[in-house]
User: Fold this.
Amino acid sequence: MALVYIEQVEYMSLEQMQQTHEDEIKILNEIDKLAILWDRGEVTQSELEDKIDEYIAHVHEHFASEEKLMLEYDFPSYDMHKTAHDMFLADLDYAVVQWKDFGDIKKIINFVRKTPEWIVMHVNGVDAPTADYLARKIDKIAAENA
Ligand SMILES: [Fe+2]
Ligand SMILES: [Fe+2]
Assistant:
């Protein structure tokens, strides 16, 4: 069983956002799987840690690319959406400090295992209306320039 399934999140009106969500869900499931194998001594800790580092970089790129699109197309609820991202990143940073500075890898594994709840809520409640707005605006601009 996977940690989270792509079917749990709404399909985005903007392909770029959809792809990012699919990639992130894939990485989360890979971490969950590696953590199980690491627990059994079947993979090394560094294999697991590399995947967690990949996730952290992906989350930052994910949020930054949405924020860039929102600014580019004057999304009216930019501040609300950006704040939601920043709050998540603060929690992530805290888990990363527990892991990297205090050597507690379980803290970041637990964080990763709890994120699906946030992701499903954020994607369906915040990203979906944002993607709808962006897709409409992009179409409108394309029509005006046609
Ligand atoms: Fe997103
Ligand atoms: Fe978002």
